[in-house]
Hints:
Number of strands: 5
CATH class of the domain at 68-238: Alpha Beta
Order of helices and strands: HHEEHEHEHEH
Largest sheet: 5 strands, mixed
CATH superfamily of the domain at 68-238: OmpA-like domain
Strand content: 5-15%
Structural class: alpha+beta
Helix content: 40-55%
Shape: elongated
Distance between the termini: 79 Å
Amino acid sequence: MRKYQPANSVDEENPYWMSFSDIMSALLVIFILAAIALMVQLMETEAELQEKVDELDDEIEVLQAAEKVRKTILDEAAEELAKRGIQVVVSENDSVLRIPNDLLGFDTAAYNIQPEYRSTAYSIGEVLYQVINRENRLEYLDTVFVEGHTDNRPFNGFMGTGNWGLSTFRAISLWQYWSDALPAQGNLQTMVNKENKPLFSVSGYGETRPVTASQETADELSANRRIDIRITIRRPKSEEIERAQIEIIES
C-alpha cells in the first residue's frame, strides 16, 4: 500500500509568495514612516510659518503704535500752545507741526529771531520737550526735523546758496536758540532715540516744498515762509517686511 503524504503548503512549494509578502510588509512600514516624516515636516513648517506671521503682526502693531504716538505728540503740542495763545497747525497726514513765520518774526532775507519773538520760540521748544518726553514715547521716534522753508522769491545771499541757505540758517537759528535758552533738564539737545542717537536734526528746503499751489498774493507767500517740525517714527526696514511677506507666501 502506498503511504498517504499530505500535500505541501503553497508557501513551501512557492517560496516566492513568502518573499512577496515580506516585501509588501516592508513597503507598508516604509510608507507609514514616510507619512509620519511628512506630517512632522508639515507641522514644523506650519510652526515656522506661524512664527513669521506673529513677527510680522508684531511689527505692524509697533508701527501702528508709533503712528498713534506721533499723532498724540503733535495734537498735544498744538493744544498746549493754543492755550498759550500760540496758533500752530498739524498737517501732512499728522506728521508735521507747522510754525508760521509771523510767530518767529524772521525779517526778509534774515534768519535771526528778533527779541520780541523769543518768548514764543521758547514756549514752542518747552512744549515740544514736555509732550515728547511723556510716558515711553521716545521709544517710538526716530528723528524730529526742524525744517526751514522759504517762499519762491529769488534770494542771492549766503555765498550763492540763496533760499537753500536762508531756510537752513533760519532752522539753525531756532535750534540754536532752543539749545541756549532752554534749561538743562528740559533741553531738546539732550534727547536721544532708542539707538542713543540725537533725536533732533536741522535741515533747510528753500522754496522746494511749497504748501500753496501758487505764490502770488501776500498770504500765499507768507504761508510758505515757515518752520516745520517733522516727526519720523521708528519702523522696520521695508526690505525686512518684504522678505517676511515673501517667505509667508512661499511657505
